[in-house]
Write a structure and sequence with these properties.
The protein is mainly alpha-helical and 271 residues long. The protein contains eleven helices and six strands. The chain is globular and about 45 Å long. It is a multi-pass membrane protein. InterPro entries: Peptidase_S54_rhomboid_dom, Rhomboid-like_sf, Rhomboid_protease_S54.
Length: 271
């Protein structure tokens, strides 16, 4: 008989929090009738300065099946939090989840850039990606390097050897879900191997907090610059040195109102 769910949640606190966040965002998206074009990431929006979409696209899911598949795989991968004795654990999980979210998103944009500029495949200019699969595939890959004897359990009945799970899942999702983003999943695998093989290493609490801080700064100011949401409480004004901005808070109604912009409805890739 397995452990009660409550105890498993306590053993996987970070994974449980991520699942809760993704589920809450999915519920909000459904309740507010938000389309994938408002939260997803595409090459065009990235070039327009919508850098905040790297974060929103990762944690957003449009369909319940997409959410359930990703969260089921993520729950199984939460075993990483229990492997502190081999150098993993909760802190490692949090540190490199941040790395996976940021680097896999940027790598997807870089792949789109090469396909568009080098190979003239204009189709990828407007492809919009949403979903947490980049991170899921990244953790599959890291676990396959660090703990190759592990198993990946999906939906409670499908068990895959973790050593083959990244590429098995890549092929499986590409066949079963034609909308699945092959490039998005592949980017997660590439970043996962870079972390697992030690090419990306040295993350600690200091660097994680620093990276998170800069991520928040870029997120907020790119959101304001893109004029997607009303952030009239935040205003940048020149100081003595025009090259250095300062931030001040304005009373309600005194700031510039930013208008909501929407994207043309384009094809979505689930990641």
């Amino acid at each position: 008989m397995g452990k009660p769910l409550f105890y498993e949640i306590l053993e996987k606190p970070a994974t449980s929090c991520v699942i809760g966040i993704c589920s809450a965002i999915w519920f909000y998206i459904q309740k507010s009738n938000i389309g994938y074009s408002h939260v997803g990431m595409s090459y065009e929006t990235a070039m327009e300065g919508h850098h905040w979409r790297i974060i929103t696209s990762a944690f957003s899911h449009i369909s319940v099946l997409h959410l359930v598949f990703n969260m089921s795989a993520l729950w199984s991968l939460g075993v990483v939090e229990q492997l502190g004795h081999i150098g993993l654990g909760v802190e490692y999980y949090l540190h490199y989840t941040l790395v996976l979210v940021l680097l896999s998103g940027m790598l997807v944009v870089a792949m789109y850039h090469i396909l568009i500029q080098k190979f003239k495949l204009e189709y990828f200019r407007r492809v919009t990606a949403v979903g947490y699969s980049c991170v899921v595939f990244g953790w599959m890959t890291i676990l396959s390097v660090k703990q190759p004897s592990s198993k990946l359990n999906l939906f409670g009945f499908l068990s895959l050897p973790i050593s083959f799970a990244p590429f098995e899942s890549l092929i499986f999702t590409s066949i079963i879900v034609p909308q699945a983003s092959f490039l998005g999943h592949l980017s997660g695998i590439i970043v996962g191997y870079a972390v697992g093989w030690g090419l990306i290493h040295g993350m600690n609490n200091y660097w994680a907090v620093t990276l998170l801080g800069w991520t928040v700064v870029v997120f907020v100011f790119s959101l304001k610059k893109s004029a997607t949401f009303d952030l009239n409480f935040l205003e940048i004004e020149p100081v003595t040195d025009p090259s250095l901005p300062s931030v001040r808070f304005l009373a309600a109604g005194n700031g510039r109102t930013l208008q909501m912009s929407t994207l043309a409805d384009t094809g979505a890739n689930l990641v």
